[in-house]
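Translate sequence into structure tokens.
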Amino acid sequence: MRIIAGEMRGRRIKAVSGMDTRPTADKVKGAIFNVLREKVVDAKVLDLFAGTGNLAIEALSRGAREVILVEKAYSARKVIQENLENIGQEQVQLLGMDAFEYLKQYSDQLFDLIFLDPPYRRGLVDKALSLLSQPCWLTRSGVIVAETASDESLRVLEPFEIRKTSEYGDTRIWYIQRCVE
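Result follows.
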């Protein structure tokens, strides 16, 4: 894996060994950031189920101003910490806790960009979206980018709506924003 664009372009990112963590492929990551474009610049970013930190680190490289990564697995957090040290990023907050515990404890937050990339086929994106909706964690122009298996569907609650989906092999990317009022 590597950082695709921005000030850290070309730098390598380590992956977590084993099958428990599935990093977003560079092709899919590139497509996501092509859709997001300028929404990343100066964004406050939340990366739940952070894995390797791949998406958050890409956002930093492209100009995000603040990033919070949430990952409960020690081995994954260790790799994220190594990746952050290797690219010289220290202003990032890395929390070693369950994503749902984070959502329950810090419900007064607002983010411009939220990444949801949990293990597939466990209903974790639906559960996270439910917690993110009340109270709403997303700024008015913010985007939630959720990654699921291509055969999964989502149950999106108000104030959210699906604005776009894309498929890449066995992966589906969902772009979710606040409903237009």
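Note: Residues 26-152+161-171 form a domain with the Rossmann fold fold (CATH 3.40.50.150).
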